[in-house]
Specification:
The chain is α/β, with parallel strands linked by helices. The chain has 8 helices and 7 strands; from the N terminus they run E-H-H-E-E-H-E-H-E-H-E-H-E-H-H.
Length: 201
Amino acid sequence: MSSLLSIQEAADLLGVSSNTLRRWEAQGKITSERTVGGHRRYQVNDLLNQKSDASLTIAYARVSSRDQKTELERQILMLEVYCTNRGWSYEIISDLGSGINYRKKGLVKLLKLITTYQVERLVLSHKDQLLRLGSDLIFSLCEQFGVEVVIINNSENSIVEEDLATDLLEIITVFSARLYGSRNDKNKEIVQELKNVASKL
């Protein structure tokens, strides 16, 4: 990234409009340089300092299925209490979907906020809240963009194990469907056997 950005590039980086940047400049909150043609150019470091004043704590909650709605509400309450007790300005993002689904609406929103320097801190109830198999990748992304990651509970519990069983069932269902075809009797038999095993976990 160049150290000098156009007004649109600067606005995109901060997640604000070009008019907001002009207003901030008129108020003396931010400065710009001018090109020979009179166009504004902004220093990246100045923009990031401005952004840090408005950075958020994002608290992320997720469950795999609709029948875990009570667990989702419990997660959200825990995150709210945790952030409030520390005096953080925060926003809750929640998702309903498998831990192996990388396209969940809330997760996509979170990644966009992180990569536009709008997040100061990410709070999770446990490590695998984001993704079952890709959390470390997102934690590396957080490190790259200067986002602190706070994990409230590092220990496993029955809900996490239940979530894992659901995710594993989904993985095996997808692969067996590819091998045998989703309508094939063999596939249906495998899926049913897996559901029976998962229900006993």
